[in-house]
Each structure stands twice: as structure tokens, then as C-alpha cells.
Amino acid sequence: MEDRILVWKLKGGSKAALSRIYEKYRDCLLRIACGLVQQSAAEDIVHDVFISFVRNRESFELKSSLKNYLATGVVNRARSYYRKKDRNTTIDNEQTEQISSDYKGPEQWIIHNEQTKLLNEALEKLSTEQREAVVLHTKGQLKFRQIARLQDVTIKTAQSRYRYGIDKLRTLLDGKVTL
Amino acid sequence: MRPTEKIEKFLIKNSISSNPKVNKAVLNELIEEMEKTQQAPESLNIGRIIMRSKISQLAAAAVIIIAAVIGTSYFLRTSNGIAWADVIKPIFTAETVKYDMIIGQEGSGAAITDMVKGSKIRRNVEGTNQASIIDLESSKVMVLDEGTKTVFYIDLKNLPSIPNYTEHLKNLITKLENSPEFEVKKLGEQIIDGKKAVGFVATCEGIEVTIWADVKTAIPIRIEQKEPNLNVICKNYQFDIEMDDSLFSMEIPQGYKEQTMSLDLTGSTEEDFIAGLRMFAEILPDKQFPPDISIEYIAKNAVQIGTLIEKTGLSEDKQMEMGEKLSKMVMFIRFFNVHGEGQWYYAGDGVKLGDASKAIFWYQPKDSEIWRVIYGDLSVKDVNEEDLP
Q1: Are B195 and B214 spatial neighbours (Cβ–Cβ below 8 Å)?
Q2: Beta carbons of A92 and A30 less than 8 angstroms apart
Q3: Residue A108: which residues within 8 A CB-CB, separation 6 or more?
Q4: Which residue from A98, A121, A105, A119 is spatially nearest to A43, judged by alpha carbons?
Q5: A residues 27-86 near B, CB within 8 Å?
Q6: Which one of A81, B29, B204, B381 has the largest count of C-beta atoms within 10 Å of its C-beta?
Q7: pLDDT of amino acid B237
Q8: Average pLDDT of the segment spanning B27-35
């Protein structure tokens, strides 16, 4: 319910509400984005999701959960990123245009350790659908019902994608990390 | 632990963190973006409101009243001095006045153009196709919508008496002249709105009025009014210009269709104010009191408030009642000088309806030593000044 109040206040121009929303969901979105795409793109995506949310706040209607809405923004942008990447083996200038308001700060936003790096390399080897299911459930704490809706599949399919993804990760990380 | 559980645990545990310096930089950028895209107060977009439901028409009426009353009382609070006397002379003697009024901060507030003749105001709100004619003497408002060729007549029953614009102005200036608290300071010369101007700031009863006048003619160019809960800027003054009576006619123009409604503003007592607060909290998510109840805030959010009332799904009559409660709450604030001394304080942001432990509003009634404090459960207590929240 707190989110409804925050959104109401944000629409009224409250900086405190914006700050609260940002602090509440920033790290979760960074975790999701980082699990879906490489670090620099993840930072751009989260930055872009927040900018877009602020720009469209007047017309925004909170229908389900705010976290779900923001996470969907991250997933959609990540998919778009991969579509572009598939077309061009390296990200060209077009990609820069696609993520319209890239974060261009001098410092890295996401800080991670060696194990996270290995984990992200392993996640990259999963299919897009499996990766989404695994990342959204473990990093974003989304329920399978929400993941299923986001992927436009049944809950069973979302669970199955998750299970296959986890099994594959276990094989990929076997002996490389301390479980 | 099964191998799959181990990997799940590893995934959850193994997480990234974010750079605090970048976190702050991105937040600042978001705030900047929000300020950049902040829209002018939607509530004053009468066109958009009126095109919606009946309850929205009521919201529009409330906004028109708020604005009308601001315009009037604003002038009524102007005052006197030495060179100051020259500066306020046109305000005293003018038969007609035209000016642009901004409620809130310049650039973010809605711009209103008023033409005033006697007790009548012809009002145009920036970005709309409407002209409103407000007759303070008969408490009637006519909104002409050019887009839909419709005339809306709004009868503001029992609007607190403001019989004659100029007479009220003169009375108040005389009253202020006799106030021992009244003080005027000269601000020197500056270029204001492209003209060389001399400035004066007058303070009285917690209100600060700054007047910038043309150095040659002493005619006011810009007047800024700051109250604890309200900012109003008036500029581009033109005094004693020709204004045809037809501009203030309340007759229905040919080819226009007619709609009528009425809004009863009887009372606006503390009980009305409390009823408005209750209604406001009841329509908000989680039954919390609103972040703010200032006129600026309500004007800015009138469309959203109207939508929340509609979303209750109550009958149209009930919705109208709710709109009326809200209007009376606004009137209590607007005519605070009738009800109370000094300023009022609001601390209801985030407080839930029913929370008796938190004070949400307090004010000092007129001619009273004690303060009235309203709590989250809407109970009211008399409190001495030293015991205020």
C-alpha cells in the first residue's frame, strides 16, 4: 500500500517520494539488470527505466505492484538489448540511440566481486527465457505468477524454465565456485 | 541440502552492491528531470476538467472560486506609505484593472489573465478555450467554453460577501494604514519585467507584499504576495483601460448551449473543515491524510482529486456532496483570516485517518488565547501555545 501513496505523492511533485521509490527499488533493479545483461548495459537500462518512470509519472496508473512494473521495464529493455545484439555482433551506434538516456557518469554504478562475475558468465550461457526466470525469481524475488505474466506463458512453463535454468547453472558452476 | 537448493541459495546470496556516489548523482538527475517536466497546475485547466463528469465540473467550480478569492483578497491586502502612496494610488483610483496572475512560483504556476471592472472579473486561464466571468456581488460564475460552444452557469450560494471589488480594496488599505504592525521598506531601483522600477516591501500580520512600480509614472508593474501558505505574483498591470460592458455580460451568447449547477458554500466552519479532511483521507489510498492542503496544492491536484472521488463508485449525488465538502474545506483555509489569527499549520502528511496520537492541523481561533489542535482521529483539543505540537 505504501507504493500507492508514494505514487500519489510523486504525481504531486514530491521529491521525497521520488527519492523513496528510487532507494527502495534501485538495488533490486540493478541486480535484475546485471543478471540479464552485461554491466555497462545494465547500468544504462536501470537509469533509463527510472528516467522513463519520472517522465511518464503524470499518466502512470499503478495497477499491480510498482516493483513488478519497474522490473518489467528492465526486462523489456534487456530483451531489446539482446535483439540488437543478435543483429549486430557488437553493439553499434544504433544501440546507443535505443537506450535513450544512458547513464554517462565517470564511475561504475554496480560493484561486484569475482564470484558474481563467474555467475554472470554462467547466466549468459542460459537461454533468454531461462535466464529471465532464474534472475527474476532469485534476484528480483518475483513470484512465478508474475514471471509467467511477464513472459506470457503459463505458471507451469515459467517454473519449468526456472528449474532447467538452475540445473544448467549447477553444471556450469560445478567446481568453479564454493556453493 | 539438495544441489539445486545450494545453487538457489548461492544466487540469492551472491549479490552486487551499488556505488553510493553514483546513486546520489542518478537521484539528483531524476529530481532535475522531474522539475523539468513538472506541468503547470492541471486543476486550472478548466477546459479539461469541464469536459469530464459532473463531479469534475464541481471541482472546476471550486477552482474558479479559489482563484477568484485569491485575486480579490490579494488586492485587498495591499497597503500604504510615503512614495508608497504614489504607487498604490492607481490601485485606489482605477475604474478598471488588467493583470496576469500566477499562483505559486513563476514558471511552474498557472498563468491567469484577469480583467476587473467593479465587482466583476473576466478571467482567462492559460492554455484553455474558456473565459470565466465571475460576479462577486451576485456570487455567480459563468464559464464560456468556445470549444464546445457551451455556457456553464455556477451559482456559488453563500459565497462569503465580497460585494464590491474597489470598495473592499479601499476599506482594507485604510484599515491597514491604522495597523501598528504595518511597515514599508524601500528596495531601491531594478529592471523588472524589462522596465526600470522602484520597489517597496510591506509587511503586516505575517504577509509580505512587494510592489515594483515604474520609476517615471509610479504605476505598479509587478506585485508579489507571500503568505505562509500561499504565493501570488501579479504582473503586466494596465489601469483604467477601456473595457466594454459586454466583456462582463452574463447573458448566454447566441449559438451556445447552457448547463447549470450550484455549489453551497454556507458556513465553512471548523466542522466543515474537518469533514473535508475526513473525506480527503477516505478517498486517498490507505486512508492517509494528503501531503498538503494548501490552496496551491489543491488547485494543482484538483483533477486527481476529482478522479479519486469518481473512483469511489458512489452515486452522483454522494459524489457531489463530497465535492462540496472539499470546496468548504478550501474555503475555510482561504478565509482563514475570518476564522483564525496568524497562520495555520498542517502536519498530516503520511498520518493515517484514526491515528489519535498525531496532530495534523492547528490554528489559533480569532480573538482567542488558546489554539485548536486537530488530531489524526479528527478529534479536536484546546491547547495552550506552550503545549503546541
Answers
A1: yes
A2: no
A3: A39, A43, B19, B22
A4: A105
A5: 27, 30-31, 34, 47, 50-51, 54-55, 57-58
A6: A81
A7: 86
A8: 88
Distance of CA B302 to the CA centre of its chain: 11
User: What whole-number distance in Å separates Cα of residue B30 and Cα of residue B22?
Assistant: 12
Quick one: cell of B193? Answer: 519585467
CB of B384 within 8 Å of a chain A CB? The answer is no
Number of other residues whose CB lies within 10 A of the CB of residue B78? 21
> Cβ-count burial of B5 within 10 angstroms (0-12 exposed, 13-18 middle, 19+ buried)?
exposed
Cα dihedral B24, B28, B34, B36, rounded to 10, equals -160
What residue in B sits closest to A49 (Cα-Cα)? B30
Q: pLDDT value at position B226?
A: 72
Please give the radius of gyration of chain B, using alpha carbons only, rounded to the nearest integer. Answer: 24
CB atoms within 10 A of CB B107: 9
How much is the pLDDT for B40? 42
State if pTM tops 0.80. no
Q: Which amino acid is at B203?
A: T
> Using CA atoms, how far apart are residues A32 and A136, in angstroms rounded to an integer?
6
For cell 488586492, what's the residue?
B75
Rounded CA-CA distance B289/B269 in Å is 19
- Are B381 and B373 in contact by the 8 Å Cβ rule? The answer is yes
> Which chain A residues contact residue B14 at CB under 8 A?
113, 115-116, 119
What is the mean pLDDT of the segment spanning B169-179? 51
Tell me, what DSSP letter sits at residue B352? B
Angle at A4 between CA A3 and CA A7, to 5 degrees: 85
Which pLDDT value is given to residue B70?
Answer: 47
How does pLDDT run across B273-329, given as a tens digit for each residue? Answer: 999 899 889 888 788 998 888 766 776 666 677 777 777 878 777 777 787 788 778
The whole-angstrom separation of Cα B244 and Cα A149 is 63
Q: Where are the domains of chain A?
A: 2-173
